[in-house]
Amino acid sequence: MNIQDYITSGVLELYVLGSLSSSENEEVRKNAELYPKIAEEIKKIEEILLDYSSANAPKPRPELKNKIMDAIDLQEKVNSKTNTPSPVVRNIAPSGPSPAFYWAAAAVGAVLLTGNIFFYGQWKKAENEISMLNSRNDKLVQEYQMVKNEYNHLAVDYRILNNPDLKQVPLSGSEVSPDSRAVVYWNTKAKKTFIRIGSLPQPSQDEQYQLWALVDGKPVDAGVFETGTAEFQEVKDVENAQAFAVTLERRGGSDVPTLEKMFLIGKLN
Asked: What is the pairing mode between strands 166-173 and 262-267?
């Protein structure tokens, strides 16, 4: 059972007001025993009804008492003329209205209260529906943002891959990591350099992979990059290169490569 839908259905308000059948009352009692949240809601509704009744109890009008007294006097006069005894002997205390008046006032208050409870239940239901709509709206915004980001990445990939000055340099795994793979994309005119990871072991938190451009047999720092993504990562500009290599260094990079931790290498065709 969906407890929240049950609470907002209005059945609990009708239960408190005594407007349900005996079988429906029994069902509510069982649900209240099974689910503490339902019992708490019933208690809350009862407190609201008591507060409302105290604040909105109608005050008897003075002229109403006079009308009731006049009607009783008239009935007694008619009975005396016809020798008919009064069916009910009433002692009207001067201090306040009769119990019948209070029953009538209570009935009017109950009608007003039932209407307010109904609208209270409708308000709670509408509030939940608005909350659900807001959640759905947030989800749509997130999905839109994801699609937008994906589109932007694809647009960047397209510009990179379709540049006629671009050279692709596949990097293969060394003896340290034979299954590692990556591709370097180097624009020979603009000198812009990108790397796209195919497979590399995840480094420790204090380590980071670093790209090197081999120029005339000497390594030149081409920047550090992250793993765990298949997107193009822009690194440092490279003026000239005959090959590229990747080593594992301390986080932030190194001035010279650690050759025993060379994971990838590839030559330009």
From this structure: antiparallel
Could you write out the DSSP letters of every residue in the chain? Answer: --HHHHHHTSHHHHHHHT-S-HHHHHHHHHHHHH-HHHHHHHHHHHHHHHHHHHHHPPPPPHHHHHHHHHHHHHHHHHHHHTTPPPSS-----TTS--HHHHHHHHHHHHHHHHHHHHHHHHHHHHHHHHHHHHHHHHHHHHHHHHHHHHHHHHHHHHHHHT-TTEEEEEEEE-SS-TT-EEEEEEETTT--EEEEEEE-PPPPTTEEEEEEEEETTEEEEEEEE-SS--S-EE----S--SEEEEEEEETT--SS--GGGEEEEEE--
**Do 174 and 109 fall into the same domain?**
no
- Residue where a domain terminates, one of 117, 146, 162: 162
Q: Work out how many domains the chain is built from and give that number.
A: 2
What would the pLDDT profile of 33-74 be if each residue is shown by its tens digit? 999 989 998 888 877 766 665 665 555 556 555 656 666 666
Nearest to 234 by CA among 181, 198, 192: 192
Are 105 and 30 found together in one domain? yes
pLDDT digits (tens, 9 = 90+) for 84-124: 555 444 443 444 444 544 455 555 555 555 555 656 666 67
pTM above 0.70, yes or no: no
Residue with tokens 């980071």: 208
Q: Which of 162, 191, 211 is the last residue of a domain?
A: 162
Domain-embedded: residue 73: no
